[in-house]
Amino acid sequence: MGPAAFEANESIINSEGATVGSYENQSVYLNSHDFIGETQSTGHSISCVAIAEKEGQMEMDYDYSSTRGLDDLRDHISIGYSAGIGLPVI
Length: 90
Description:
By secondary structure, the protein is α+β, with helices and mostly antiparallel strands. It is built from 2 helices and 3 strands; from the N terminus they run αβββα. Strands 1-2-3 form a 3-stranded antiparallel β-sheet, with helices on one face. Strand 2 and strand 3 form a beta hairpin.
């Protein structure tokens, strides 16, 4: 992810890094009317933050993807590249 951001823009000097996360959730609902219900869910995310600098001026940009299904996430290279390309060449 990070290398793609650096390739996208020559002004990029650093990155705040990349984050990847996943969760599984199960919720149970109960009430005083004898209702019992249950739900299950998943979620996945990926993000990257790029930092550009020229002559003491700094700017940052990011990109991310967040989905319920793992197969629906955008790939890490496109996330990194998009985080870098969004920054002006300063």
